[in-house]
Specification:
about 30% strand; 3 helices
């Protein structure tokens, strides 16, 4: 998907918030306006010092998520006049910042994001394993 970087903001916690325009033409002089806010968080050991997660290792998190977790937010509005596109994008960005900047700038944001993504991926793996096991039980190859 085509996206154009339109702004970068360095947050108080050292992370970088990036804004992308993913708008695309729909019909005639109309477009789908799409703003994406993204923060890539590198998985670093200091995010997990003194959190008391004895059952969770940094290696396990990295094995599950690779080397980073990504925060993504997207806001869309369809069938917008091309002449209004930039104003709509600016409005999306301003509303997002007024509602989310404090949360995203929090010193705990990176650690919480990584742990949240880790739990999501692990839950998806458990579901996939259960589905696979049920399919194998019903497979003609297993004699059931």
């Amino acid at each position: 998907m085509d996206e154009k970087l339109i702004d970068k903001i360095e947050l108080a916690n050292g992370l970088t918030l990036e804004f992308y325009d993913r708008s695309k033409p729909v019909a005639g002089d109309r477009c789908l306006v799409s703003l994406v806010a993204r923060i890539d968080v590198e998985i670093r050991p200091e995010y997990f010092e003194n959190i008391g997660a004895k059952d969770l290792s940094l290696a396990e998190i990295r094995n599950t998520l690779a080397d980073r977790a990504t925060y993504l937010y997207e806001k869309k509005k369809n069938f917008v006049s091309n002449t209004e596109k930039d104003d709509i994008l600016d409005g999306f960005k301003e509303k997002f910042l007024s509602a989310s900047l404090g949360y995203l700038s929090s010193p705990d944001f990176a650690r919480k994001l990584i742990l949240s993504r880790y739990k999501q991926v692990k839950a998806q793996l458990v579901i996939s394993q259960k589905v696979r096991a049920n399919l194998l039980k019903r497979s003609p190859l297993t004699g059931n």
